[in-house]
Amino acid sequence: MKKSLTILISIFLMAALVACGPSDEKMAEVTKAMGVMTDAGESARQTFLDITDASMKQQLDELTEKENEIKAIELEKLNDRKIDEEVMPRIEEVTKDYQELGEKLSEILTEETGIRTENDKHRFSQVYFINKTGMNLTKIQLHDITQDSYSDNFLGEGVVLEAGYTLMGPALDVYADSSRWEFVIKSDGDTEYILPCESLLPVKAEGLSITLNFDSKTGEGTVDFGGYTAALKEQSSETSQDASGAEASDEAEADEAGKESSN
User: What is the value of pTM for the model shown?
Assistant: First the structure.
């Protein structure tokens, strides 16, 4: 009888403990842990929004779902032991996963920010070259002396810009942190020449004309810059080539020849 009474009292006490819910100390502990989890999740989601790489979206969505499931738990119906055994481990796991994911996302953000910063230093302008060197050119390159880098050949492979002709269509890429440039040209006689030029900054967004000059007597060359539209009008009566090397003045000559043959 005495043994049965002891068992009944134990069961009653256990039921009472369950019924009374968590202690104030345990509620404070789990609330704090949830706050850390929430902050880690918000940080990871914000970093994700700041990057273009979407490869970790599924992992982030899965963690957000786990977080919401934990927050839906009715803690007031659990005692301290239940919270320690069933809730706290889940909170700690999700928090850790959020933090690890946040670190990876931060690395991507740092990398992408560096790339954007570098790209922002490049200034692009539509240009065309006017060949007044007196030579047929097989190469035109921009040499960034500050960065010690060379552009691709603006003429392209196998294209010759004849003396007095204009090359239209290239895009000039100018690095904003640079301060010194020069143009390197090569004649169809396979001889290279250096043409010093003034500052290319600020780059004109509306376009730029670049006149290449060379004095065969002194062996020196210069580069003159002008407005894109104004120079186009000036060159409208002269022979021109597009970036593929096609001659624009041939049409006028063909029309004239047609008139003569008809007469």
Answer: 0.56
